[in-house]
Amino acid sequence: MTPRTGRVTACRRRIGEATIDAYQELQELGHFDRLGLDLLLELTGQEVQRIPVLRPSSGWDADSVLDWTLGFFAERAAAVTAAVLAQAGDLASMSRFLRISIRNFLVSEARKTPSGSVRRKIEELFAATPKFGQVPAGHAGAGRWQLSGVPLAPFAGDPQSLVAAAYSVPGVAVVRWTGARRAPLASDEALVRILDAVFSAASGSLEVADLTWIFLQRFPAAIEPADATLDPAAFDWAVAPLDERPDVLVEVGAQAQEVYEQLSPSQRALLPHLEKPVADHMQILGIGRSQAYEAARKLKAVIGDLVPEDDLRGAVVLEVVRLCVVHP
Amino acid sequence: MVSDKRDGLPQEFGALAQQAAAPQLTESALRLRFGPRSSWAPVPGQIWRVTREDVGLLVLLLEVGADSVLAAPISVESLAAADTLPIDGGGTALGVPVTVWPGLRRGFSVGVLDRPVAEVTPAVVGLVVGWPTRSEEPVSDVARRSDPAVSEARALLEDDLAAVADMLGVDVEPLDPEMTGGIDFENLPSEAMDEAVERLGVPLPVLLDMIDGKRISTPDQAMIMREVLGGSPAAAALPPGLVTELHQPRWRGLVRQCGRRDRITEEAARTALAYDVTAMAARQTGDQEPSWPDRILRWSESHQLDPDAVE
After folding, report:
1. Are residues A150 and A56 in the same domain?
2. Which residue in the set B52, B56, B162 is minimally distant from A88, CB to CB?
3. Which residues numbered 144-183 in B keep a CB inside 8 Å of some CB on A?
4. Which residues of chain B make contact with A111, given a CB cutoff of 8 A?
5. Which member of A30, A79, A89 has the closest CB to residue B76?
6. Looking at the structure, do residues A133 and A202 belong to the same domain, yes or no?
7. Residue B57: which of B150, B158, B128, B132 has the closest Cα?
8. Maximum CA pair distance of chain A?
9. Does one domain contain both A102 and A123?
10. Sign of the torsion formed by the C-alpha atoms of A258, A259, A263 and A269
């Protein structure tokens, strides 16, 4: 039942005649110490390998793993200390719990990585595009943004409806963020059309932070927890860029390629098998039944959002599936 | 480079670790609070650690029966959603925010309970018991309203719950007498004993004891011996009262000690222990139904094992 990827090897030391492990150290002291840090470093070093978006430009080394380990502990030290003491019974269950906690933390960090650049891009577009303006002082929501015209009240509806409006804009070519390559989300022209559609749907004013959130929903970093449990060979082909794959010689539909680029490695592995029983999904992703249901549910929703309901839909989805099943 | 820094604990890590210390949750502190293992009796309102293999999680007990409990899982983090009940750090002895998942409550064998760690107020139990069950609210609606982190946490928890709840019980049925019989050692292939050792997962001396009848075989073990060795000793029926007693958390430490000693899984150790205690009781009391807690204690004393030993 240990999650796939990596084993714990070290994290024991001798004290006099006895050898203690990280779990026993925690039980003795009531807090993490040297063996606990060793365990966290080992687990973090294994888990970061599956999150390419976090990879430093110079590659992973001991210092960058230590930075992420400290980052994890700074945010979750109290919760993981209490949780391990309360619910783990030995080193194996401690390691399993910490591995999942570290993975969730890294996925969460990867998902918010691009927010700064998205925010700056939105502010740049507002500054350069007269069709958008700020609500003037003295009106409700002063300082928020809206389509130029009479001041509008702050939007107070369901934010998901604005995400749907952002998805409804056709012909948006996406460039995925990866590590050192911080390309724009899409062309400025396409982004302005999306902002226009979102403001029209809102019929009100919005803060830049709201728009940043909407853009991050529309252009999510393709990170899923199941990426970490994917079989190593499947992971390698799923993260290979299409233009580096010698098998993709034929010209693929641009729309299908855009969709493919927005899927995470585990979603690419799962898509060709989406109609199969959940037992197959569990096997492919290396996770349990409920997590497999959740992964399939989310993938269906993402495909539904990314591929417009038109005559080409069936062909586009088939082409995305083909991209996902072709091996390098 | 890390080794340089690890020669001494990084100052930042040490300070964070000290701030996050939870001395009230160490085994010694919990022992002071809840007493020795042999005195534990599950009660509604208690938060228990449940474990199976390397899966460990916390559950809030809602109802306690003779051999099963109804319990809701708890996450040690604050997760706000339509189907969660967050409790702040002051609400339990854990000292950090936790989240109860009332919709995921389910029945467990009492055998999965490992140790009590905290309690909640009766008001919290009442809230959880009165929560609408999952079937009254479509799963997809719950999932759709949640943010991804909550959906992922819920799915992971459901899988862990299923893994723990899947714990096998002890088979009380005797093996079909037609399936047992003598082993023809003269015509036994030399590699058969090796295969039997491997498939049974026991050392050779244990296998020889089982063949000689010095150690009673479980039905599963007898079946494997029948397949590999062409025969097996008969397996006896187990008294249901003993099986129920051996699933109580007060004996779980003893079961694990047996498992470690014989290098077998906890479930196999519980079954083997049940057969051993049955055999010992039969020799001592004949057909009369014995006091199983007394018999288990006597058995552990005769094998120099302590059910209250710190593991």
Report:
1. no
2. B56
3. 148-149, 151-160, 162-163
4. 148
5. A79
6. yes
7. B158
8. 80
9. no
10. negative
Give the 3-state secondary structure of chain B.
CHHHHHHCCCHHHHHHHHHCCCHHHCHHHHHHHHCCHHHCCCCCCEEEEEEECCEEEEEEEEEECCCEEEEEEEECCCCCCCCCEEECHHHCCCCCCEEECHHHCEEEEHHHEEEEEEECCHHHHHHHHCCCCHHHCCHHHHHHHCCHHHHHHHHHHHHHHHHHHCCCCCCCCCCCHHHCECCCHHHCCHHHHHHHHHHHCCCHHHHHHHHHCCCCCCHHHHHHHHHHHCCECCCCCCCHHHHHHHCCHHHHHHHHHHHHHHCCCHHHHHHHHHHHHHHHHHHHHCCCCCCHHHHHHHHHHHCCCCCCCCC
Residue-wise pLDDT for A68-121, tens only, equals: 999 999 999 999 999 999 999 999 999 999 999 999 898 888 776 666 677 888
Between the CA of residue A299 and those of A30, A100, A292, B164, what are the distances in Å? 42, 21, 11, 28
Q: Which helix (H) or strand (E) holds A325?
A: helix A313-325
A93 and B22 within 8 Å at the Cβ level: the answer is: no
Segments forming the whole domain that contains residue A58? 12-112
In a domain, A30, yes or no: yes
* Domain final residue, candidates A218, A237, A261: A218
**Could you tell me the domains of chain B?**
15-165 (2.30.30.110), 177-302 (no CATH)
Does the residue A3 lie in any domain? no
Which residue in A has a C-alpha nearest to residue B256's C-alpha?
A89
Nearest-Cα distance to chain A for B179, in Å, is 33
Nearest to B151 among A95, A108, A294 (CB): A294
Residues A175 and A87 in one domain: no
Q: Based on the structure, what is the number of domains in chain A?
A: 3
Q: Chain B closest CA to A198's CA: distance in Å?
A: 21
Q: Do A38 and A124 reside in the same domain of the chain?
A: no
Of the residues A218, A247, A272, the one at which a domain ends? A218
pLDDT tens digits in sequence order for chain B, 311 residues long: 333 444 568 889 999 999 999 999 999 999 999 999 989 999 999 999 998 888 999 999 999 998 889 999 999 998 888 888 999 988 899 999 999 999 899 888 898 999 999 999 999 999 999 988 655 544 444 444 456 678 888 888 998 998 888 765 554 444 444 444 567 777 777 788 888 888 888 888 878 877 766 666 767 777 888 888 877 665 556 788 888 899 999 999 999 999 988 888 888 888 888 888 887 776 665 556 778 999 999 999 999 999 998 77
Phi and psi for A213 in degrees, rounded to 5?
-60, -45
Measured in angstroms, the CA of B152 and the nearest CA of chain A are apart by 7
Residue in chain A lying closest to B27 (CA): A27
- Best B1, B3, B18, B25 residue to mutate vs chain A (most A CBs within 10 Å): B25
The structure's pTM equals 0.68
CB pairs under 8 A between A and B: 164
Q: Do residues A213 and A233 both lie within one domain?
A: no
A120 and A191, same domain (yes or no):
yes
Pair A169, A108 in one domain: no
Is the pLDDT reported for residue A15 higher than 80?
no
> Per the CB < 8 Å rule, is B94 touching A82?
yes
Instruction: Tell me how close the Cα of B141 comes to any Cα of chain A, in angstroms.
Output: 12
Closest CA–CA distance from residue A63 to any residue of chain B (Å): 6
